[in-house]
Amino acid sequence: MQIAVIGATGRTGVPFVEQARAAGHGVAAVVRSPEKRRLLPDDVRVVEGDARDRPVLDRLVDGADVVVDVSGPAGRGEPDLRQAIVTELLAAMDEAGVARLVLLTGAGVRLPGDDPAPVDRVVGWIMERATPELLADGRAAVALARGSDREVTVVRAPRLVDGGRGGTLRVAEVVGGGHGARLGRDDLARFLLGEAQRAEHVGGAPVVSW
Ligand SMILES: NC(=O)c1ccc[n+]([C@@H]2O[C@H](COP(=O)([O-])OP(=O)(O)OC[C@H]3O[C@@H](n4cnc5c(N)ncnc54)[C@H](OP(=O)(O)O)[C@@H]3O)[C@@H](O)[C@H]2O)c1
Q: pLDDT at residue 157 above 90?
């Protein structure tokens, strides 16, 4: 399978690409800065540039079976990063005939059908005040993706910690459906790869946690 990755040089992207290559998949990845090329295996097809640029995305998705977007802003000051990427990405996928997208976002992005427990409401309240732009951008990106005619899986994660391979994954179909408050990025990568391979949650937005 050919997997196109946005955010491959990030803390989730690096273990994702490593696991995808170990499973024998071909990987294409957007890389913004040449020095980050070394974070990825040599046989990854690198597309240099910014993932908000349509020509970059056209090259990225060429020949892909599925796109996995695990990008995120480096800090504040990019309040529409995810929606800008998803807007161009959906157009590029449409043009290239690539049907499937796996989009990572936070569990703070709430959707119809969610039934947040009191603890989820508190976390949501805090995030709404601490990172309103991040949340709004995530919501907008998810709405764009789910409103498209692509086959979209939104994967929602709680607080991420580096590493953490081999934990027991809990997969809840909705916020409040029996998930935890943390997840290791290695295990998140494992779930993302499984979804890229098996498309078990297309149309859904599972919350994945320990
Ligand atoms: N942190 C959490 O606890 C948490 C919880 C739930 C969900 N999430 C979500 O999970 C996602 C990934 O998180 P993470 O911690 O793995 O992110 P990260 O380490 O910050 O990595 C972000 C990746 O996105 C890339 N990127 C950013 N802007 C780009 C652009 N314009 N063009 C191309 N690539 C671009 C970065 O490239 P460079 O390497 O060049 O900077 C990097 O590869 C985020 O969307 C975040 O909202 C995070």
A: yes
